[in-house]
Amino acid sequence: MKNIFLSTLILLVPLLGQAQFEGLIIWNFKMEITDPKLKAQMEQASAKMNSPEMKAQMQELEAKMNDPQFKAMMEKNPEMKAMIEKQLEATKSGSGGSMMDNMMPKSMEIHIKNSNSLTKTTGGAFDSEILFLKDKETSYSIDRKNKTYSVLPQSPASKTEDYKVTKTTETSTVLGYKCLKYIVEMTERGQKMTNNVWATTEIKDLDPKQFSKIRIGQSQRASFMDKIEGVPLKMNMGMPQGQMTLEAVSLKKETQSPELFVLPAGFTEKKK
To answer: What is the pTM of this model?
Structure first.
């Protein structure tokens, strides 16, 4: 499931080239587990996480999180650390929630100005910020909690034979824009994925061709976007275990602060 999220997230980090759009685009995430075995396992795990016994253990874990040795171990596994912190928050508030709900993101916002972009993903274990600076043709992952940033490596384009794009006649309206559906069949890390993409050609100041430069997953670029006409506003990404839907819920053309598009002062580079 993590691979689906990473693919979706990096797909929507917009390297917008010559685009003149300035504003904010917000997407909402929706995750659905369709594999019966995995769904049962997740429900069983969630029930256990919300039991009185587990809540007592979580209290012990919270105390242990302050132990220097345990804290150092958690720093080496930031995703596990984030998931534990989210579950601790849910336990404290009494909201509980399922492990999947606490782990998966809730929304993503992309600020765009002068072809630079700042992408913020919130909720779950995947809180993140990715800054793209057009003049450097470079993307950075920003960690505000630890006041560090890291340079994201450039990735090769995916091979043409790795994907197949089928244009359909099916349409859908997203935020008042008419979108055409495309079916993208691809293989990533040995797993077959079918992605449905709804794209519009009605947003004239966003250059859709630039989306072909976007990375997909951790090692490829979304070269299949060359075969899609328009700007994607809705995506459904699926694999055997489940599917994620990402849909734009707000698109505003408005002035963005230049301060959003610079590396934060005082942050140090974290080498990978």
So the answer is: 0.69
